[in-house]
Amino acid sequence: MQITLDKLKINQKGTIVAVKGQGVTRRRLFDMGVTPGALVTLIKLAPLGDPLEINIRNYELTLRKDEAKNVILEVEDN
What we know:
By secondary structure, the chain is of the alpha+beta class. The chain is built from two helices and six strands.
């Protein structure tokens, strides 16, 4: 099942399939290691749901929700 990163639940894992967006936003995500094939785990959410903290490539990364909407993941159905 494919979802966007902002829809991931805490401790749920997914593999990045694609990164949408254009220009600076897309380039910034790639520079931070958010690339297709990377395994992502949602660590925690801020109280209002923005930003969110993920584990990717063995480091913690904080993203805003509107940035996370550009990242498409493949997750297992549970």
